[in-house]
Amino acid sequence: MTDLVIEAANSTPSASPKQGASQAQAVTSEQGATSEIVQASAWYLYLICCANGHLYTGITTDVARRFNEHQSNGPKTAKYLRGKGPLTLMYQEQVGSQGDALRREIAVKKLSRAQKLVLIESAEHR
Fold this sequence. Notes:
Residues 41-118 form the GIY-YIG domain. By secondary structure, this protein is α+β, with helices and mostly antiparallel strands.
């Protein structure tokens, strides 16, 4: 069996990662091979309501930043949302990894409008 030694990739005490950013660790095996383990940051699913009443579903690691990007109508705005403001953030939920978020996004996009509104309502009553 191979013994692994785990060391922080950035061992200076003054260096701290950004909030929400991924942290990396170097892993060194007995043979000296080094690989990086990346700790995933939390992913979120969110629903936005457009001025015309349409619902938009997306995923991100920072809901406030992404919502502001959508509202700004800048280059990072989803094409679907351009010119459909004012926008309202209706729902958000933490889902774990990016893969989990993608699977949840697909599942929510398959829901009917009525089912999405029930999801939004259930979150408001928590």
